[in-house]
Amino acid sequence: xxxxxxxxxxxxxxxxxxxxxxxxxxxxxxxxxxxxxxxxxxxxxxxxxxxxxxxxxxxxxxxxxxxxxxxxxxxxxxxxxxxxxxxxxxxx
Length: 92
Prior knowledge:
This protein has 92 residues and is of the alpha+beta class. It has one helix at 40-79, and strands at residues 2-11, 14-25. The chain contains one helix and two strands; from the N terminus they run ββα. It has a two-stranded antiparallel ribbon with strand order 1-2.
C-alpha cells in the first residue's frame, strides 16, 4: 500500500499548484503494531519535505510580487506619477 503526501498551494482561494512532496510504502496485510503509521524517521522526512516546499513557494511568491512592484515603480517614475507602495496596495 502506498500513501502519497501532497502540498496544495492556494492564493486568494485559487489553486496555484499541487505537488507531491513525499510517499510512504506500508504493508496492506499481516501488519504488526510497530508497522502501523509512519516511523519517527519517516515522519521527520515527510515534515522536512513539506516544510521545504512551503518555504520555496513563499519565497517564489514574494519574489514575484517584489519584481511586479519594482516594474510598477519604474513605470510610474518614467510617467512622472508617484510610485506605488506596498502600504497602499500597489495603487498609484
